[in-house]
């Protein structure tokens, strides 16, 4: 399937993944123009039937793909898989090491049969003492210290989305694009890529690790951190809503104090620089909170916007479906679930030649493309034999 006009048009990806990390990789590649063929067992990817907070996983991370059903316990379907991989540029999987060996998909076997193939395995850990362990987003957040930095010493807290799984899929995309570029430069060999969920999270906390390396001081968690600016806080407003305000430059400080009647601070000779103001937060913040309490969020946001000061109301995810920036043309794209029901989803966070990507994507019905893919493979085999 070609002719999309997108950068990965003509690239074929075979995907055997589930849950979030691997499917995210395939979803992004699909939106960039690759043909992504999702191989599912006869009962389907178990992620299809998740409920609760997992109800969005399958439609969100499998948009724009084709679905074929193969029973790899059967010789005929293993042969189909072999032909499919021969026709592909990339193979995505996120099974634990050794699980695919019995199906003829061990790394050594793949490299022997398909030396051209870029194989990207999304795993819990990179090679090392923990490589045999299963992992979850929560597991790696606790192990890496991210949960400790997000919460407090007494109450570590995971971040409020599948952040590591999604970012792991993105690192998969980055690695695959590098391997495709290498092949474009003339290298006909494939690549064996391993993406680690734990190491992905380690990358996120590197700033705190390096801080300790440089200073010898244990980094404080975000709720307990030392402030780098005098005003960098969440405040209550009139009506019970809350807002974050960050005053981070000299110009912001002067304009904020002037606009909100806080010349007592801007004229104070003991508050001439940022360090002075940070040390005086004990008297600055209560006074600022008193002033902010007299504003409603809408008027306050408009004023801060004019002043070019960093701010944000404390939103919930559902609030974004009414946000004017999110609702701008291309901010949300219209996609369709496997049952045909429409849903809106944020576009990929990039603009390509001034436009957005991902409008009209469909979540595949289980096995909807099995026969058409088999027919394509048969046609290719006939063409190769005739040649």
Query: What shape does the CA trace take?
Result: elongated
Main beta-sheet annotation = 6 strands, parallel
> How many structurally independent domains?
2
The tally of strands reads 11
Strand content: 5-15%
> Taking all residues together, what is the mean pLDDT?
94
Written description of the protein model:
It is a single chain. The chain is an alpha/beta fold and 387 residues long. The protein has 2 domains: 12-205 and 329-386, 3-Layer(aba) Sandwich (Rossmann fold); 227-317, formyl-coa transferase, domain 3 (2-Layer Sandwich). The protein has 15 helices and 11 strands. The protein has helices spanning 21-31, 57-61, 75-86, 107-113, 137-144, 146-150, 163-184, 197-204, 206-215, 250-259, 263-266, 274-279, 281-292, 297-307, 370-386; strands at residues 12-16, 35-40, 66-69, 90-93, 118-123, 191-196, 231-236, 242-247, 310-313, 332-336, 342-346. The strands form 3 sheets. A 6-stranded parallel beta sheet has the order 3-2-1-4-5-6, sandwiched between helices. It has a 3-stranded antiparallel beta sheet with strand order 7-8-9. The two termini are 22 Å apart.
């Amino acid at each position: 399937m070609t002719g999309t006009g997108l950068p990965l048009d003509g690239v074929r990806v075979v995907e055997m993944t589930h849950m979030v990390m691997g499917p995210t990789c395939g979803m992004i590649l699909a939106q960039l123009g690759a043909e992504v063929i999702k191989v599912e067992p006869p009962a389907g990817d178990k992620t299809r039937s998740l409920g609760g907070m997992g109800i969005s996983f399958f439609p969100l991370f499998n948009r724009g793909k084709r679905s074929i059903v193969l029973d790899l316990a059967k010789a005929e379907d293993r042969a189909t898989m072999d032909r499919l991989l021969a026709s592909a540029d990339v193979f995505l999987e996120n099974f634990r090491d050794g699980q695919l060996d019995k199906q003829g998909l061990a790394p050594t076997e793949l490299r022997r049969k398909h030396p051209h193939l870029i194989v990207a395995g999304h795993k819990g850990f990179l090679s090392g003492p923990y490589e045999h362990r299963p992992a979850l987003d929560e597991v790696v957040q606790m192990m890496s210290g991210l949960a400790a930095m997000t919460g407090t010493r007494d109450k570590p807290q995971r971040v409020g989305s599948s952040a590591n799984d999604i970012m792991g899929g993105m690192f998969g995309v980055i690695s695959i694009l590098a391997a495709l570029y290498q092949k474009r430069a003339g290298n006909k060999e494939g690549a064996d890529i391993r993406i680690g969920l734990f190491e992905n999270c380690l990358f996120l906390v590197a700033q705190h690790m390096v801080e300790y390396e440089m200073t010898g001081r244990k980094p404080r968690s975000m709720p307990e951190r030392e402030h780098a600016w005098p005003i960098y806080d969440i405040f209550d407003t009139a009506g019970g809503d809350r807002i974050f305000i960050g005053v981070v430059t000299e110009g912001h400080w002067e304009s904020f104090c002037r606009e909100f009647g806080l010349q007592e601070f801007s004229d104070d000779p003991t508050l001439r620089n940022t360090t002075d103001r940070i040390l005086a937060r004990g008297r600055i913040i209560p006074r600022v909170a008193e002033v902010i309490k007299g504003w409603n969020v809408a008027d306050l946001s408009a004023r801060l916007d004019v002043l070019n000061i960093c701010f944000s109301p404390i939103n919930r995810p559902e609030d974004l479906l009414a946000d004017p920036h999110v609702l701008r043309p291309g901010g949300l794209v219209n996609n369709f679930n496997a049952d045909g029901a429409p849903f809106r989803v944020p576009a990929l966070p990039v603009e390509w030649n001034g436009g957005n990507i991902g409008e009209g994507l469909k979540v595949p019905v289980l096995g909807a493309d099995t026969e058409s893919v088999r027919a394509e493979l048969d046609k290719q085999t006939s063409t190769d034999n005739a040649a």
